[in-house]
Amino acid sequence: xxxxxxxxxxxxxxxxxxxxxxxxxxxxxxxxxxxxxxxxxxxxxxxxxxxxxxxxxxxxxxxxxxxxxxxxxxxxxxxxxxxxxxxxxxxxxxxxxxxxxxxxxxxxxxxxxxxxxxxxxxxxxxxxxxxxxxxxxxxxxxxxxxxxxxxxxxxxxxxxxxxxxxxxxxxxxxxxxxxxxxxxxxxxxxxxxxxxxxxxxxxxxxxxxxxxxxxxxxxxxxxxxxxxxxxxxxxxxxxxxxxxxxxxxxxxxxxxxxxxxxxxxxxxxxxxxxxxxxxxxxxxxxxxxxxxxxxxxxxxxxxxxxxxxxxxxxxxxxxxxxxxxxxxxxxxxxxxxxxxxxxxxxxxxxxxxxxxxxxxxxxxxxxxxxxxxxxxxxxxxxxxxxxxxxxxxxxxxxxxxxxxxxxxxxxxxxxxxxxxxxxxxxxxxxxxxxxxxxxxxxxxxxxxxxxxxxxxxxxxxxxxxxxxxxxxxxxxxxxxxxxxxxxxxxxx
Length: 492
Ligand SMILES: Cc1ncc(COP(=O)(O)O)c(C=O)c1O
Prior knowledge:
The chain is an alpha/beta fold. It has helices at about 30-40, 55-60, 65-80, 105-110, 120-125, 150-165, 180-195, 210-220, 235-245, 260-265, 290-300, 360-370, 375-385, 390-415, 440-450, 475-490, and strands at about 80-85, 90, 140, 205, 225-230, 245-255, 255-260, 270-275, 305-310, 335-340, 350-355, 430-435, 450, 455, 465-470.
């Protein structure tokens, strides 16, 4: 297509009104001039060889200091957009290939052909979570830890110590499985606290469990492969499957967790089952021992994998935590996934996968192809935090705090929403589910009143219950009381 070069003569008089800076904008005036002239040159509105008015004249016309214009011209000259001739003003560089001018314009015209790959389109169509509420005064989003209880001073001390004398291995390219001392500390912890049976070699440190889910999908699934997902279930797990082109098959859950026989009847040859056995997300059931054995037997028989997402099992307020399904597995079928997002901070982006021994090499190579490994010092500080007793202390403290916060939420709901919400205490977790009719409308009304809650039905593919997820761990009892009062006003 012909480019708009109406008068390519060096001698023609150009007006640069379109490049006049606007003092009401936040961008510095010189930067505005620079960008406007770049645009005019790249779009072909100023053709090679065009002579520009003098900086003195432009400064006068635009009401800015001459220095501002001179600096912009100098930058454009240094980058090759303009050329200057001593005593003869500035010209649009003749070196610029005329045929390529207007490239920006053409890019916009070519939009039709700028299509994504099939994989890219699947990624772009798959949000990993519900939209973040904006401008809410009280956020009852589930699964967020108490920032007010995090020992920042301890963390800062450990981090400073590591940076003062960092071992060389922390500074270069590290092991794609992760910093070995962190994997050893995790092995000890997972063995004692969760009954997980593994060697440090089987542990892969990831950037949160989301990266672990993505890794599992990439390494174990082909496009079209059916995968059992709990219904209702975790959106991040379903998103990782969809992004990999796999086919989530919803399997209902009840008071004993995943209904394994329904899964086996519906899709006996699934490649993988994704489960949250310790504390089903979002309804909270613990997978019964009978169902655990049934699930392991199905996987053995079908030659399928099981992904155990043990995201918040540390938060159990009464009784002992149920040991991990991984510890019951004698057939090497279970991959165990954990995260520091709940017990420390989501912003750390640290999680871990425990894989059966024969999968280690494949996972190690695939992990290196992602981002190689999380930052070395972050891994080392986390290992120190575990090894020096801070983790145990933090868990004990937050467990007490969260039990109190759950009680505060229940009391506030009973006080302000006695007839509107069916809600009861649970022994574990970081949120409660309050049942009511039409959770989508309730969520919208709450949002308009500045209260962020999450509708249960958003987590379901088929078996839509209606309720609100109310996360209580990140809010103080005072905030919980005020937030529930506001929620009640919005719902009644
Ligand atoms: C079921 C479940 N798994 C895992 C996670 C943690 O995700 P990540 O480790 O990527 O922060 C969450 C957090 O919301 C969750 O609810």
